[in-house]
């Protein structure tokens, strides 16, 4: 007998994985059958003529015996005494089989053990589903095979539950994705194990009291199975052992052998793995739907979310009228917005309906049209990552953005990437949305999450057009080009386009700085601050970097790296706030009315578009005549009020009070003054009762009121008198006020940082407290996170920093203002 | 044989690694560590909340070398890791009794 031999058949061509792979597996099983039966006839049965039978189980039982795979043999004994008494004979048999090159994986069981549920050894129960008598005591086996179907039928739920648990654990071990660069063809999601899982669940479901049948798999899965089985055979042959990892080396070897492009060949692998994985997920879903009464109740509750376009049934979204996709393809985007909003997965039916119409969608989306509002909606919802995943799965994502097609299943070979580029992208988006602690806070502070997610979607889209050997140099430019084309086609507003382009262009800056720059070196930090420009951009870039690094593989974002990134964020953040007060626009640009800009912080130029600056200059011209000019305009989801006037004590407080008097909620604000003493204040505010939207005349009234307050014709306290007192906050959500003075951060002013519980009118009270203590507000940055207001004032008294006693007096006033209610 | 443990600034890693490779030191172990020496931690304030940054991120490089190479290697590390500022790190040298290659049980300096 040839020891490593045992493949008396010609080597199979694994890539074509033709029909003969199954035949060769079966022939191999028959060959081993004869070997085992002969050895048993010689060594075992003369001594044990009855009470013992050899049963083939597992893959061997199914007649799918891979080269060098374990031969699963069940030694069925009538009672526990037999194996004890005949240990020498059984050992002799196993030794013989081992010596002839078989890796026997045997278990010795009584029929009773075979028909008991083993929660700790589900594999034993499951392996018996593929049992087959080989030789020995036939009546003994007949008794088992009579009882076994009844056992399966009676314990169906427990067996299925255990099998589902094992499968879920296995999927989790591989991060619930089949897009691994070096997949395990047996264990990775979408591998052979998943194919078996589907088959076993089917067997368990179909079993009746008389027999356990083996229903046939659908054609698509049979094709995938042949491919994977061929692959596994080839891997085993190549390694000379039970080796299922499709390593880069193995990929090269297998593809070279077939003289094919490795990348194309791997795509074929992913296509098959995807078919198997999706079928496995369907099977898992079916189990969930059938198994839990509680789940059913929840499911019923969720079905109330159904609307005229979509129905929620059994925790899955369905189209009410899928044919409408033909006439109004944007229905597809609304569907994904629904998924993104509620976090309810698509039904298989809806997925198939979408897949069938991808061609029509592609055609429709190819025309430039205003799709950004719809895309923005999807990306702004809490479950955007889930929606994107389904868009990717159904092909809608590449129909919408053909530029992303080239990263599908794209393998990037290096030491640390674990996923294909498309999967890396989706994982990064997921990571951004679930970033922990401080990074999560940064995400919540971003004015537009959708811009960050859009940038992440495209950040690596240029990888196929760059030189892998040169570390993907140039991929940033190619990604920018792909994103640019997509943004123009969906008519994204210029400001958002700039923000996306900034993030893609710099997506490696922070991680590069972490590795190569001295974070304690002021010059390095200044350079970065220069590149980044504003706090909002810094925050977005920090979250992006966090998400991108952690999506390389699950263990790369160590606490060490995370703290390095945070250190870098803090250093740049401080630099940005410091320069805010110190770096001023020096010379007037060559445009009419540009005197307005002289002496404003440099950052003003970075945070405002040319269009806005022109608007401000026009507004300044208007203010010359009347002493003040106010402009109010509606933004995407908020309103903005801009004021230009001569410097007046208490102006900022007056504006804050006016807005509070109209019931508006201030979200962000800036106050700058230029060299000529002109003031430019901007407030972004929410209109919780939609007063301005529903009553356009109120916009005018707000503007006139604001102007009258500025010009001293109206006392803001009058306005506030009639406002209802805010409800005292619940104890749970209470935020203790923190007030801090900083003399170091700025060369010319004292920084007052206030963290307090937000409430209507808070900003007015704080600004009044500063003004009434003699302080002049030079620069203000206002921000709100949930119910926390974070306000930074740059304050001077008579043009200089505050003295210690002034600080303590002002601190007292501010503390009082924070606790007013 | 000697074992060298060098604690250096993270951003100097590539430079030190390159310098070691340039003099023929290929094998090394690198870990991300945190700690502080005389460059103690400090407090930082972010949005009104104080964070104590008492342990600073560093990188630890471990190499085992033949006695004869000790001076070379330490000099290369010192030169490539130095910025001249506090926090540049330290190098520790210790004796190694034996080195064994697990694959074939080779022993001594030939293993390095």
Structure description:
The complex is a heterodimer of chains A (821) and B (112). Chain A is built from 37 helices and 14 strands. Chain A is α+β, with helices and mostly antiparallel strands. Chain A folds into 4 domains: 20-158, Beta Polymerase, domain 2 (2-Layer Sandwich); 159-286, Four Helix Bundle (Hemerythrin (Met), subunit A) (Up-down Bundle); 294-580, Orthogonal Bundle (cca-adding enzyme, domain 2), CATH 1.10.3090.10; 599-724 and 731-819, no CATH class. The longest helix of chain A has 30 residues, at 262-291. The model of chain A is unreliable at 1-18 (pLDDT under 50). Chain B is elongated. Chain B is of the alpha+beta class and 112 residues long. Chain B has 2 helices and 6 strands. Chain B is 20% helix and 37% strand. Chain B has a single domain (2-111), classed as 2-Layer Sandwich (Alpha-Beta Plaits). Chains A and B meet through helix 26, helix 29, strand 11 and strand 12 of A and strand 2 and strand 3 of B.
């Amino acid at each position: 007998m040839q020891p490593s031999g045992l493949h008396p058949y010609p080597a199979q061509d694994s890539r074509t994985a033709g029909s003969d792979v199954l035949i060769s597996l079966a022939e191999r099983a028959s060959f081993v059958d004869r070997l085992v039966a002969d050895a048993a006839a010689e060594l075992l049965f003369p001594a044990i003529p009855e009470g013992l039978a050899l049963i083939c189980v597992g893959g061997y039982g199914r007649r799918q015996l891979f080269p060098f795979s374990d031969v699963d043999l069940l030694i069925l004994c009538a009672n526990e005494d037999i194996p004890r008494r005949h240990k020498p004979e059984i050992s002799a048999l196993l030794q013989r089989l081992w010596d002839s090159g078989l890796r026997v994986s045997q278990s010795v069981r009584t029929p009773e053990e075979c028909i008991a549920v083993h929660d700790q050894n589900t594999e034993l129960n499951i392996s018996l589903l593929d049992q087959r008598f080989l030789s020995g005591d036939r009546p003994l086996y007949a008794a088992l095979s009579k009882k076994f179907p009844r056992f399966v039928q009676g314990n169906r739920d427990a067996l299925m539950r255990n099998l589902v648990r094992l499968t879920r654990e296995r999927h989790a071990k591989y991060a619930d994705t089949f897009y691994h660069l070096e997949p395990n063809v047996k264990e990775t999601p979408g591998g052979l194990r998943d194919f078996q899982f589907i088959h076993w669940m089917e067997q368990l479901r179909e079993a009746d009291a008389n027999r356990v049948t083996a229903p046939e798999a659908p054609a698509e899965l049979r094709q995938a199975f042949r491919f994977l089985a061929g692959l596994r055979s080839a891997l085993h042959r190549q390694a000379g052992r039970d080796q299922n990892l499709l390593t880069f080396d193995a990929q090269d070897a297998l593809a070279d052998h077939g003289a094919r492009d490795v990348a194309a060949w791997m795509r074929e692998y992913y296509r098959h793995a995807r078919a198997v994985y999706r079928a496995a997920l369907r099977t898992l879903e079916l189990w969930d739907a059938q198994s839990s009464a509680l789940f059913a109740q929840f499911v019923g509750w969720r079905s109330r979310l159904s609307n005229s376009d979509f129905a929620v049934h059994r925790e899955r979204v369905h189209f009410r009228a899928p044919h409408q996709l033909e006439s109004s393809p944007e229905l597809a985007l609304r569907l994904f917005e629904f998924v993104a909003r509620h976090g309810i997965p698509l039904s298989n039916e809806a997925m198939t309906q979408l897949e069938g119409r991808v061609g029509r969608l592609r055609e429709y989306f190819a025309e430039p049209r205003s799709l950004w509002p719809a895309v923005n909606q999807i990306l702004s919802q809490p479950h955007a990552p889930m929606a994107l995943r389904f868009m990717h799965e159904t092909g809608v994502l590449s129909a919408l953005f053909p530029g992303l097609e080239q990263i599908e299943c794209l393998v990037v070979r290096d030491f640390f990437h674990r996923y294909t580029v498309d999967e890396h992208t989706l994982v990064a988006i997921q990571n951004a949305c679930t970033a922990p602690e401080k990074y999560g806070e940064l995400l919540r502070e971003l004015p537009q999450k959708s811009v960050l997610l859009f940038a992440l979607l495209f950040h690596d889209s240029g990888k196929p057009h760059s030189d892998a050997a040169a570390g993907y140099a140039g991929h940033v430019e190619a990604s920018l080009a792909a994103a640019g084309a997509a943004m123009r086609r969906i008519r994204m507003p210029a400001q958002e386009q700039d923000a996306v382009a900034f993030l893609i262009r710099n997506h490696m800056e922070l991680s590069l700085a972490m590795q190569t720059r001295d974070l304690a070196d002021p010059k390095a930090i200044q350079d970065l601050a220069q590149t980044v420009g504003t706090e909002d951009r810094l925050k977005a870039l920090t979250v992006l970097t966090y998400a991108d690094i952690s999506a390389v593989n699950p263990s790369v974002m160590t606490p060490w790296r995370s703290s390095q990134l945070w250190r870098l964020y803090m250093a740049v953040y401080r630099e940005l706030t410091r320069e805010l007060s110190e770096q001023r626009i020096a010379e007037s640009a060559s445009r009419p009315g540009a005197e307005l800009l002289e002496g404003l912080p440099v950052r003003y130029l970075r945070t405002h578009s040319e269009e806005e600056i022109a608007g401000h200059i026009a507004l300044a011209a208007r203010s010359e005549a009347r002493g003040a000019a106010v402009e109010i305009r509606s933004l995407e989801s908020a309103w903005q009020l801009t004021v230009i006037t001569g410097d007046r004590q208490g102006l900022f407080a007056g504006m804050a009070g006016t807005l509070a008097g109209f019931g508006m909620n201030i979200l962000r604000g800036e106050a700058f003054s230029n060299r000529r003493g002109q003031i430019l204040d901007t407030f972004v505010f929410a209109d919780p009762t939609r007063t301005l939207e529903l009553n356009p005349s109120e916009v005018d009234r707000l503007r006139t009121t604001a102007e009258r307050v500025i010009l001293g014709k109206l006392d803001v306290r009058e306005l506030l008198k009639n406002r209802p007192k805010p409800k005292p906050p619940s104890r749970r959500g209470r935020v203790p006020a923190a007030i801090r003075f900083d003399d170091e951060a700025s060369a010319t002013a004292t920084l007052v940082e206030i963290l307090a519980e937000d409430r209507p009118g808070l900003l007015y009270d704080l600004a009044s407290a500063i003004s009434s203590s003699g302080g002049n507000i030079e620069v203000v940055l206002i921000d709100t996170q949930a119910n926390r207001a974070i306000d930074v004032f740059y304050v001077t008294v008579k043009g200089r920093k505050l003295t210690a006693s002034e600080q303590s007096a002002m601190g007292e006033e501010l503390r009082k203002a924070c606790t007013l209610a | 044989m000697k074992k060298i443990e060098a604690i250096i600034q993270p951003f100097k890693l590539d430079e030190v690694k390159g310098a070691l490779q340039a003099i023929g030191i290929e094998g090394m172990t690198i870990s991300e560590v945190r700690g502080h020496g005389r460059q103690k931690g400090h407090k930082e304030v972010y949005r009104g909340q104080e964070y104590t940054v008492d342990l600073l991120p560093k990188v630890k490089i471990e190499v085992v070398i033949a006695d004869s190479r000790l001076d070379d290697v330490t000099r290369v590390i010192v030169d490539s890791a130095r910025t001249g500022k506090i926090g540049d790190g330290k190098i520790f040298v210790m004796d190694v009794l034996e080195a064994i290659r697990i694959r074939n049980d080779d022993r001594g300096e030939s293993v390095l």
